[in-house]
Design brief:
Length: about 190
């Protein structure tokens, strides 16, 4: 909104949807609620944009860290109402969230936007909590949120190098600011 306010000749749109994962963003019409409720979210490259900023990964990371039971409840269970994008019932076999899948999806999303003529910037995902120890003992997690987000941020940098696009270092900026605060970490 601030960019549009200072530049009234620009049209700035948020084409996101709460709960999206990178797999949903790549081809939204293959997933609920888009498939059966007629909700239209364009595929990458269909926007006709000059500039695209991609920020995705929080939900991918939560699914990776939370494990199968969490992912089933949060991202695959039929809620009966339109809302966050849903994974298919066989998600664990078809599209299990992983850092590797995230990187593949981001690379394809970037390529599709670039192919349409857009200049692309990709943000590294934000922190999940502030615990940078990587310790998950005593928590109902399959993976460390900090380690997972760190790996995903590295994925964004690899994709940006390979595809020649810009990186917005959100993860790195949050980590730097968190260290400056010098207080006890808030965990996820």
């Amino acid at each position: 909104a601030a960019i549009a306010y200072k530049n009234p000749e620009l049209c700035v749109e948020n084409a996101g949807w709460g709960g999206l994962m990178s797999i949903n963003m790549l081809d939204p019409q293959q997933f609920e609620p888009f498939k059966s409720h007629g909700v239209r979210l364009p595929k990458p490259g269909e926007f006709g944009a000059d500039f695209v900023c991609i920020l995705i990964g929080t939900n991918d990371a939560m699914a990776i860290c939370g494990g199968q039971k969490f992912t089933d409840a949060a991202y695959a269970a039929d809620t009966g109402v339109p809302g966050p994008a849903r994974l298919p019932k066989d998600w664990a076999l078809q599209c299990a969230p992983s850092v590797q899948l995230f990187e593949q999806n981001i690379q394809e999303i970037v390529r599709l936007h670039q192919y349409s003529g857009a200049k692309v910037a990709v943000a590294t995902p934000p922190l999940l909590g502030e615990d940078t120890s990587g310790d998950i003992s005593g928590k109902q997690l399959d993976a460390s949120p900090f380690s997972t987000i760190s790996e995903m941020a590295a994925s964004v940098h690899r994709v940006a190098r390979a595809e020649g696009c810009a990186v917005i270092p959100l993860f790195e900026s949050m980590l730097f600011h968190m260290k400056i605060l010098g207080r006890r970490a808030i965990t996820w």
